[in-house]
Amino acid sequence: MKFNLTRPEFPLNQNRRFALFLPTASRLEFASSRVSHTLHKLGAAQAGFLHAADSVTGTDWQRRPAPSAWSAAELVAHLCQVERGILGYADRVIRKPALPVSFFGRLHLPMALVESRMVRRKAPASVQPERSNLSEKETMIAELRGIRERTLAFLEETHQRNLSRYCWRHPFLGALNFYQWFSFVPAYRFRHTKQMWEITKNLPKDVASSQKQIA
Predict the structure, then answer these.
(1) pLDDT value at position 30?
(2) Which residues fall within 8 angstroms of residue 37, CB to CB, at 6 or more apart?
(3) Fold of the domain built from segment(s) 23-203
(4) Which residues of 163-174 are buried (b: 16+ CB within 10 A; e: fewer)?
(5) 0.70 exceeded by the pTM?
(6) Mean pLDDT over residues 20-33, rounded?
């Protein structure tokens, strides 16, 4: 199936609960439209983040802009851990029958909170970047690209299934279904694209380079 990456077949701001009452074929079409929209967001988020990462030189890649702030390398390591974890868990959970979740059990905070950096939270220990995961810029960017390729392949492999009944909790937002989790991935990438630009802005300027520019 070729996804339409320009516009979904269904308005995504409508209440998605109606999909549960559609005939099976219509449910699959609805699910595919959501995957199409997610693929578009994944592509845009990846392109924006890589553009921001280009602003950090290889020399500054593991350099922190402040003692308590992450370096660009730590940020990429974190994003790799998050997306790899979501992908791995989703792959495992859909191999079993979906557990029933009540309407109230599916309630969650709006995804818009993810993209905004107005609300800042410390990353859980399980996805805190470790020094052992840091490497040169080219190596880490290649790893980030590789994980995204696996995500895209997974969504392509599962697009003929309606997986909206699969639901598991996010530590801050609440319960998200399969498609919402993969909508979270680009939203989270947009959020950290802003952080990458902040890293670039706040990195200490090299004194020698500054003197050369003045001269």
Answers:
(1) 52
(2) 8, 12, 183
(3) Four Helix Bundle (Hemerythrin (Met), subunit A) (1.20.120)
(4) bbebbeeeeebe
(5) yes
(6) 53
